[in-house]
Amino acid sequence: MLRKSLFYANDESNKGSDQGFSELLRRADEDAKNRENQVNIDEFDDVDDLEEVQNIAKNPRALLDDFKEDKSEQARLQNFDTTNESEYKDDDIQVLEGLEAVRKRPGMYIGDTSPRGLHHLIYEIVANSVDEALAGRCDEIKVTVFPDNSIKVEDNGIGIPVGIHPQKGIPTVEVVHTILHAGGKFGSGAYSVSGGLHGVGAAVVNALSEWMEVEVHRDRQIHKIRFEKGKTVEPLAIVGDTNKHGTITHFKPDREIFENDVVDFDLMINRYREMAFLNPEVKFILRDIRTDSPIEKDFHYEGGIISFVEYLNRHKEVLIDEPIYFTEEQKDIFVEVVIEYNDSYVENIYSYCNNIATLEGGTHLTGFRSALTKTLNDYARKYNYIKDNEANLSGEDTREGISSIISVKMPNPQFEGQTKTKLGNSEVRTIVESVVNQQLAIYLEENPDIGRIIMNKCLSAARARAAARKARDLTRRKTVFESNALPGKLADCQSKDPEFCELFIVEGDSAGGSAKQGRERKYQAILPLWGKMLNVEKSTPDKVYDNDKLLPVVLAVGAGIGSDFDLSKIRYHKVIIMADADVDGSHIRTLLLTFFYRFMRPLVEAGCVYLASAPLYRVFHGQEEEYAYDEEDVEKIKQQRNWENPRIQRFKGLGEMQPEQLWDTTMNPEKRHLIKVTVGEAQEADNTLSLLMGDKVEPRREFIKENAKYAQLD
Fold it and tell me: Is 507 designated active site?
């Protein structure tokens, strides 16, 4: 800052100070001659930093040259020319006909064109079938993934109408798939409750598909129509007779829109397992026929969301024998809630509206949280669990160790955005608050033993939170830049802009050394971890602050943990786990992912946590080389490069790689393979940790029995 302020005072806008500045430089030259050889080498850990200081000592005028370059770049950016000399004419106005707008700006309709957007296409079509189930006309939905990554969705609903639409003069099924804002869910005739209300779902999927075929079984006839890139290429025609009813939609996402069109079947399993919990009257059948051994999964849970919360807690010790369940309808809004407490220290609350997962919450979730905190505080005061001079329980205290599902069904939900991740209806909050306040209060009065268990859990959380705050205050890095002492063995980066900064968490000092030498020090920081890492399965925030393995991670990120975590204070916008591709590395990844999920979940939700994918093999022939991530990659390289007998080097760990190799393969933004961690993936890591390290022995034994056959011994 001193350098900058000095030269800002002596740039071209302050010519009157030239004489004083010349005198300053003269003195600097004189001092340099006297001090050139007096630099204390021991004070510098970094050779580059030492060289920079020595160069400055020899030639202080170089600073001015650097500054002039910086100033010219700054001036260029400040004077960036946005003018356009072309005329603004009538033909500059583009009119996008039909579904062209969707293909032009797909992100406006499905969020983005990443794998997330790709899977959103499937969700949209399945949502239409689920709406049929909500209307009581469907009890089976089948989803099949084909070898070409096309998807077929079949239901046994009533079938999309196939007659001529009175306004458009074309078949109604064609209207639904080619015209935006056309659907049967704007009024209350065909559907009293539905997830699709914008009338854009099927049309958007059609627009973003290379092709789509829709087959409708209705009125004892099979009707079929085909589209390509949103346009009708084969008009609706009767192609046969049938005794069935329902709609079959077969489509292939367009590679022009989606660079990666590979369907993640595991992701589908997780999604439609949820849907089966939410719709106990419907059976979901998922099929993946892309391999020689097709996979089929059937999901049907008659217990509904009670079964859902039991599934969430399957590897945990629950505190209540039977989940708390209640439901009520007010003003045409149906509210369904299930609550269970376990012995963990994190909350798992899932919210839904008309079967749509509201990943960003909304008014129903706000109402639930508010009511839960108020009801438990009222109960604690009434029965003297909290004294008059003591503070109320916080929301975090009441939700520690909770697993809960909040599902609302209503005629006219207002979602924020087409991707429907947040519910916006203001009236829902009041209704959910009312239902939870009344029903939970009655339950606690009728079940005082359970009330005592919940109170003990909440009070324990409050004490742990107070202890964590004390520990945090003692160990906190005042700000991410204030402290001179870096946490652990952190080698920080030079940039102070979090948006461009990356933190690599590496396994061991050996890999850490290679990473430090190979990194781009301007924006890449390295934090080696060593020793046995804390298992956070049974850890409270105060234990994390007291742990010498995790505390450096907490301090390096710089945003706190738990309820105190503040996303705006993070030091790095990319936190990258870089571990070996072996059992120990997998263990470390699982532990770290679980830690981030439980104590820094907003970091995961913001898409700031990544896994680095390091190669296992170096394949080289003469002076040429390639890197492979598995044995299949090795064979591909042999075939593509036509190498018959190349030399192959297997890396046992990152520490075996030279700094240049580590940079080229794993750290270079232009070449590396980073996997962004989603909440679902972090949650799966959390479930795995609970299974392998929890108190329940039987599930762990079964897991070992099932997976022992896959273990490989070196």
Answer: yes
> Residues of the chain whose pLDDT is less than 50?
1-18, 35-36, 38-39, 41-45, 47-48, 56, 60-71, 73-78, 80-84, 87-97, 184-189, 196-199, 477-484, 707-714
Instruction: Provide the residue range defining the domain that includes 355.
Output: 305-471
139 catalytic residue (yes or no): no
Residues 132-166: tens digit of each pLDDT: 888 888 999 999 999 999 999 999 999 999 999 88
Complete DSSP assignment for 249-302: EEEEE-TTT-S-----HHHHHHHHHHHHHH-TT-EEEEEE-SSSS-EEEEE--T
Catalytic residue among 100, 582, 605, 684: 582
- 68 and 142 fall within a common domain: no
Contact between 405 and 335 under an 8 Å Cβ cutoff? The reply is: no
Beta partners for 151? 145, 251
User: Are 352 and 455 in a shared domain?
Assistant: yes
**Helix locations, 105-227, DSSP H:** 107-110, 115-134, 172-178, 201-207
pTM over 0.70? The answer is no
Same domain, 228 and 159: yes
The one catalytic residue among 48, 584, 630, 702? 584
Number of domains in the chain: 5
- Whether residue 711 lies inside any domain: the answer is no
| Six-digit token string for 217 | 């079984």
β pairing state of 524-529 and 502-507: parallel
Write phi, then psi, for 145 (nearest 5 degrees): -105, 125
Active site residue 584: yes
Last residue of a domain, one of 299, 323, 351: 299
Residue 86 belongs to a domain: no
Q: How many residues does the chain have?
A: 714
Residues 602, 688 share a domain: yes
CATH code where residue 205 lies = 3.30.565.10
Which entry of 336, 400, 507, 537 is annotated as an active-site residue?
507
Side-chain half-sphere exposure of 136, counting CA atoms within 13 A: 2
Residue 340 maps to which CATH number?
3.30.230.10
